[in-house]
Amino acid sequence: MRSDSSLLALRPEISTEIDVPGSVGAFLHATLRPVLKLQNELLLAVVQDFVADHHIALTTTETTQHQRLLTDLLARNVKLRYTIVGLVSGHFTTAEYAFYRQNRGELNRRLLDLATQRVLSQM
Q1: Cα end-to-end span (Å), the chain
Q2: Of 5, 25, 60, 102, which has the most beta carbons under 10 Å away?
Q3: For residue 11, what pLDDT band results from cuts at 50, 70 and 90?
Q4: Can you give the three-state secondary structure of the chain, one letter per residue?
């Protein structure tokens, strides 16, 4: 059985900007950034598998087109977007998930922006 304390113990420490506790910005720095860092290798593997499964030719493109293709893929492909959201939200504590449910639209947007930045900087 998973406990909230064991989920929190898995997360890497990240120095965060001071934000209003209980705000979307605070959730971004205290939860989304550490979970994305924790799941970084898996995030990259998921995107690489998706690119390979859908025969997207990234290896033959120049860097700017490569980044544009990845950005479009992460922005428009609903299946990949939901996979990434699930990859991250599966590591929320019970209280974090309750907050996430109340702010799902804004947090999904921010989560996917952060994930896109991570993928573009590392692939």
Answers
A1: 35
A2: 25
A3: confident
A4: CCCHHHHHHHCCCCCCCCCCCCCHHHHHHHHHHHHHHHCHHHHHHHHHHHHHHCCCCCCCCCHHHHHHHHHHHHHHCHHHHHHHHHHHHCCCCHHHHHHHHHCHHHHHHHHHHHHHHHHHHHC
Cβ–Cβ under 8 Å, residues 96 and 8? no
Enter the tokens of residue 81: 């977007």
Query: CA 100, 25, 114: angle at the middle one, nearest 5?
Result: 80
Q: What is the pLDDT of residues 57-84, one digit of tens each?
A: 766 667 777 788 888 888 888 999 999 9
Count CA atoms within 13 Å of residue 65 on its CB side: 7
Domain extents in the chain: 20-122
The answer to whether the CB of 29 falls within 8 A of the CB of 14 is yes
